[in-house]
Structure formats: C-alpha cells, structure tokens
Automatic annotation (TrEMBL):
Entries under InterPro entries matching the protein: ARHD_Rieske_2Fe_2S (IPR015881), Rieske_2Fe-2S (IPR017941), Rieske_2Fe-2S_sf (IPR036922), Ring_hydroxy_dOase_asu_C_dom (IPR015879), Rng_hydr_dOase-A (IPR001663)
Entry keyword set: 2Fe-2S, Iron, Iron-sulfur, Metal-binding, NAD, Oxidoreductase
Organism the protein comes from: Mycobacterium pinniadriaticum
Needed co-factor(s): Fe cation
Pfam families according to UniProt: Rieske, Ring_hydroxyl_A
PROSITE patterns: RIESKE (PS51296), RING_HYDROXYL_ALPHA (PS00570)
Name of protein: Rieske 2Fe-2S domain-containing protein
Keyword presence, Metal-binding: yes
Rieske domain ranges (all copies): 57-163
SUPFAM superfamilies for this protein: Bet v1-like, ISP domain
Highest taxon in the source lineage: Bacteria
Gene3D superfamilies assigned to the protein according to its UniProt record, in alphabetical order: Naphthalene 1,2-dioxygenase Alpha Subunit, Chain A, domain 1, Rieske [2Fe-2S] iron-sulphur domain
Length: 392
C-alpha cells in the first residue's frame, strides 16, 4: 500500500523517471497461464466471486439524468434494467418479467413511466413493484408484494452508477474503494460532468486480456506508433498502489522541454495522462480537460468473449465557455479518434492474443516488474477468487 501523493509531486517523479530512462517497478516478474483466459470453470467462478460480490461501474449518472429514464445492461450474471426514480435515486433490477420470464425491456435506453411485458402485458412501476396482472380475475390469487422485479444492489457515487451483480449482496462503494481512492475520485467532481458519448463493443476476447491492455504503458510505442505513441512516452509510469486499486501518471512528450529546464511552480497538469484502475474492471483516464472510462465485462457463458464499454465525460456546455458548435465538434473529434485507435490498433491485437491463448501448449507467460498495474489487477482478482475457494 502507498499513500496518495500530491499531483505535482507525482508529475515531478515522472520527470525524474523519464530523465533516468526507467519506470516504477514491482519486486518480481510473475507468471500466468493461457488457461486463465479460456477455462469455462474459472470463468464461472469469476462471474460469481468477482462480479457477484463487488461493486463495478455500469454507467455515468448523466446517461439516465431524468426521472423515469432507463437503460439496459448485460452483466455477467444478469440482464439488468437500470431506472432513475421519481425522487432522483437509481434502482437496478433483473430485466425479466416475474410471470413467465420474458425480457421486460429490450431497448438499450429510453424513458418510461411503467414497464409492460410484451408477452402477456404484466406491468411494473419504475420502483419495481408489480403494477398490473392482465385479466387478473382469471389468473388466481398471488401475493403481489413478492412478485415485483428482483432488485440488485445499486449505488450512485462520484458521478457513476455502481452495482453488484447478485440480488443477495449488499453494496458499499466507499468501503470498496477504500479511503484513498474514494477521496481521489471525490476530488474530481465527476458528477458535474456529462457523458458526451458512450458505446459498447462485443469482442471475441477474454475480459482480462481486454482489461490488461488498458493498464499497460509498455506497449504504446509498438502497438500505437502513429497515434498514442506520438503523444505519450512508453514504459514511464509514476505508480501508486492502494491495494485493490491503483493509479499512475504517464508523461506526454510535450513534457520533454522540462527535462533540462526547471519548471519552478508552473502547473505541469497539461503534460501528463493519469490512469486509475478501479477493481474489478474499470480504467479511468484523466486527461488534461476531460475523463475517459473504459469498462470490461465477461460474457455470461463464453470465456473467450467479453464486452468493452467506452465513455467520454466532459464539462457541460453551459460551464465550458464554448459555443455549442465548438463544444460538439471538439468532443466529437475526440470521440472519433478514440474509436479509430480501438478498432484499428487495439482490437486486432487483442483478438490475436485470444487466439494465441487457445494453443494447447502455450506454456507459462510473464508479467514484468514494469507492468505494475497489470500485476495489481492479477493479484487482486486472484484474492477475490481465493475468498470463494473451498477449504483445502
């Protein structure tokens, strides 16, 4: 565990690392095996013991900003219906009619004052209570209070909506984040931002391969020579380990002018990108003028598939000082750059990685001392899985 250091100190540490052509490192190289990305039994344990036990982010609050706004999400264990309540709170439900199990809502997003099942037209209020049984005089007597929608633990904190994918769990996001990371996120005023764009992609790749790629400052020069490699230094990370979570600063190449010149009291914030790993499955990128959130979830049944979701969170138009056209054009251009990098550079490499992991004789593989955030991800997911292991 490390204490959170002031940002200017961390940026100056990154400059020192850059001057010395090194990076923060862990003590040892660790090994891993290909079966961790292909094994159906392990994948089931991850769905139950990770996503069914701990909070993970599924949306930014601005995506369902008004009462009765809703969105649907496929989680590893449940189809989820997320609804903004009349009082401004948020609830999450299993997206399934309690009559015969039909999917209650198949639209990705919308606004609805009640939800009506397309099969027999049973309906539910936004708070999940059973509103109406069609032709109830012929159906028979039931306790309606027991047949509302199944609720999942849900909490809105730091601008994000978090759930645990297990109706029998309880949620405490602050407790899960821990005091350091909770304070870090609290300092960003993320609830004051707006999600400019969000998109999801279903990929033929294990979720851990996907998550690993977006914690990795070691590949930038090689996998992204014409995009990020031109902007960000490779394999230079000023790293902080908070146990479950971590963060690191990577210097942009624009910082190079300060390698020989003392910046004094000048703010160096515009010269770095800061990455936060939020266990189990989120990478939050702090850019000089906005945030990006990347989340990775296992497929409900297939260990060789996953879903990645990307969100771009920016200052609201009314506080940005920009004209509306300029605001839209600026963030639309940024969004298109992100999509291009994902689809032309990241995704093809990660699909190939999954194919390679399918080799019967793959042998052991390695995470280096320099791959600090990747080591935290592996260490902490193993801890979560070990908690649910039967006694030996």
């Amino acid at each position: 565990m490390t204490k959170s250091l002031p940002r200017p100190d961390r940026i100056r540490r990154a400059i020192e690392l850059l001057r010395n052509e090194t990076t923060d490192k862990f003590d040892d190289v660790v090994t891993f095996s290909a079966h961790e990305f292909t094994d159906p039994e392990l994948a089931q344990r991850e769905r139950d013991l990770i996503f069914g036990e701990v909070p993970s982010i599924i949306a930014h609050g601005s995506e369902i900003a008004k009462p009765y706004d809703f969105m649907t999400v496929q989680m590893p264990r449940n189809n989820v219906l997320l609804v903004r309540q009349k009082d401004g709170g948020v609830k999450a439900f299993v997206n399934l009619c309690r009559h015969r199990g039909a999917l209650l809502e198949d639209n990705e997003k919308g606004r609805c004052r009640f939800f009506s099942c397309p099969y027999h037209r049973w309906s539910y209020d936004p708070d999940g209570s059973l509103r109406m049984i069609t032709r109830d005089n012929t159906f028979g007597d039931i306790d309606r209070g027991k047949f509302g929608l199944v609720e999942l633990p849900c909490e809105e904190r730091h601008g994000f909506i978090w759930i645990i994918d297990n109706a029998n769990a309880s949620i405490d996001v602050a407790g899960w984040l821990g005091p350091e990371m909770d304070a870090i996120l609290g300092g960003y005023d993320l609830a004051e931002l707006v999600c400019f764009r969000a998109a999801g992609f279903d990929e033929p790749t294990n979720w851990k391969i996907m998550q690993d790629a977006f914690l990795d400052g070691y590949h930038i020069q090689y996998a992204h020579p014409n995009s990020a490699g031109k902007i960000i230094h490779t394999n230079v990370m000023a790293f902080e380990d908070f146990g479950r979570h971590c963060r690191f600063i990577a210097p942009r190449k624009s910082i190079d002018r300060w390698l020989e010149e003392d910046p004094g009291d000048r703010s160096l914030d515009p010269y770095v990108t800061e990455t936060h790993f939020l266990l189990p499955n989120s990478t939050l990128l702090r850019q000089p003028d906005h945030f990006q959130l990347l989340t990775f979830r296992p497929h409900p049944t297939d260990p060789t598939k996953s879903r990645m979701e990307q969100r771009l969170m920016v200052p609201r138009l009314e506080v940005s000082g920009m004209a509306e056209d300029h605001w839209n054009n600026r963030w639309e251009k940024n969004w298109e750059i992100l999509l291009t990098v994902l689809h032309s550079e990241d995704f093809p490499l990660l699909r190939n990685s999954q194919q390679g992991m399918g080799s019967a004789d793959a042998g052991d593989m390695l995470l280096g001392r320099n791959e600090t955030a990747n080591q935290v991800f592996r260490r902490e997911t193993k801890r979560l899985l070990a908690k649910g292991a039967p006694p030996s």
